[in-house]
Specification:
The complex is a heterodimer.
Chain A (H helix, E strand, L loop, with lengths): L2 H37 L31 E5 L4 E3 L7 E7 L4 H17 L4 E7 L5 H10 L5 E4 L2 H6 L8 E5 L5 E6 L4 H13 L3
Parallel strand pairs in A: 3-4, 4-5
Antiparallel strand pairs in A: 1-2, 1-5, 3-6, 6-7
Chain B lengths: L1 H27 L6 E4 L4 E3 L4 E10 L4 E3 L12 E5 L5 E2 L8 E5 L2 E9 L1 E10 L7 E11 L1 E2 L8 E11 L13 E2 L6
Parallel strand pairs in B: 2-12, 10-13
Antiparallel strand pairs in B: 1-3, 3-9, 4-8, 4-11, 5-10, 6-9, 7-8, 10-12
Classes of the chains: A alpha/beta, B mainly beta.
């Protein structure tokens, strides 16, 4: 084959490759931008991120690691509760929302388990991850007979726990504040109870 | 010989660029997709007239979204919102009835949900004094998805469709630039 033909062909192929690469970069950039737009507080309902605090990279806490500390407003009294102030107790951090049916299904189990293991040092903390008014969250929790701490979540706290892209999401912390277990999605009462027992036994 | 090596090198560099970067692109698209919008055909409406419009959304398996009239007040209804350019209006939307379904997380309770294709109907209305031309309307589907085990934060799916104001079968004036409705902000 003529050298010129080969040269032209190879040039065309090289350019094609580069164009594909440029298209890939451009598309990826638009996907990222769209995702960013959809995930922004304006596009996705949910707890608001404060403007002055940059979002940390969402990384889920792993088993054995100290659970990220946070301070959130409790409902209905509005008092601030700091997670680390509960050290010495086994803590269940249950992320939920009023619009989440599986979360609602878990609540009676959490109520029963708080009652059963509270005297042994269990404290369940429900973190509401929705935009509902405080009184709606409080009313909902009251209707469900919630007997544990309810906090109003923020996106910043969500990010500390991996971004909370689905609910319910529950972390079980031992008495020293370390994560001993995690359940993603609806968990049966026996699964929750086993994780609670583990949390109560460890970190003394 | 040297020439052939050069050609081979150019080929490899070009193809590798494409292949590697396309491969890198894949992970960026791995996020969950709950609902996609099926493109809506251009709606043609005469000034002072009305024309039907339908929007089709595809709820991806294994997810479902609440219907427009969920069974409990705290559940987030599926709703369409539009940002209109002023030349056209959209009449009341007709949402399909939800399917009453129970899910493994609560077999005793039925929820009103959409799954699969969801067709929402409406009417485009052009006032008598509406300017002729093609207008791009920005819409947004607001929904909240769940699967059999968990629920996902509420989402907004933006989409667009065109409305051509003019006589049916007669093209709108070409000289007029396409008008675009402002983007929706909340």
């Amino acid at each position: 084959m003529d050298r010129r033909v080969i040269l032209v062909l190879s040039f065309v192929l090289a350019i094609t490759g580069l164009l594909m690469a440029m298209q890939a970069i451009s598309h990826r950039s638009s996907v990222v931008n769209l995702n960013a737009a959809l995930e922004s507080p304006n596009q996705q309902a949910g707890p608001k991120r404060s403007a002055e605090s940059p979002a940390p990279d969402p990384v889920e806490p792993s088993k054995g690691s100290l659970a990220p500390d946070f301070t959130l407003k409790s409902l209905p009294d509005g008092k601030e509760v700091r997670l680390s102030s509960l050290r010495g107790k086994a803590v269940v951090v249950n992320f939920w929302a009023t619009w989440c049916e599986p979360c609602k299904i878990e609540m009676p189990s959490l109520v029963d388990l708080q009652k059963k293991y509270g005297p042994q040092g269990l404290q369940i903390v429900g973190v509401a991850m929705d935009d509902a008014e405080d009184k709606e969250i409080t009313g909902f929790a009251r209707k469900m007979g919630v007997n544990y701490i309810v906090l109003k979540g923020t996106e910043k706290v969500g990010d500390l726990y991996g971004g909370i892209d689905r609910l319910p999401l529950t972390y079980y912390l031992d008495r020293s504040g370390k994560v001993v277990d995690e359940t993603v999605g609806l968990a049966g009462e026996s699964v929750i109870e086993d994780a609670i027992k583990k949390a109560l036994e460890q970190g003394n | 010989m040297k020439f052939h090596r050069l050609v081979l090198f150019a080929l490899c560099v070009g193809l590798l660029n494409g292949v590697l970067l396309c491969a890198q692109e894949a992970p960026a698209q791995q996020g969950r997709v709950f609902v996609t919008a099926v493109p809506t055909s251009t709606v043609v409406v005469a000034p002072g007239g009305r024309a039907p419009v339908q929007f089709t959304f595809r709820v991806q398996s294994p997810y479902h979204i609440n219907s427009n009239q969920p069974t409990a007040e705290e559940l987030i209804p599926t709703q369409l919102h539009f940002s209109l350019p002023g030349e056209v209006a959209i009449g009341k939307m007709q949402y399909p009835a939800g399917q009453l379904m129970s899910f493994p997380f609560d077999p005793n309770t039925k929820l009103s949900v959409y799954s699969g294709d969801v067709v929402i109907r409406g009417v485009v209305v052009a006032p008598t004094q509406a300017s002729t031309g093609t207008f791009t309307i920005h819409g947004e589907l607001r929904y909240q998805a769940c699967d059999n085990n968990a629920c996902y934060p509420p989402k907004k799916l933006p989409f667009t469709f065109n409305v051509k104001v003019g006589t049916r079968g007669k093209a709108a004036p070409k000289a007029r630039p396409t008008a675009t409705s402002p983007h929706i902000h909340n």
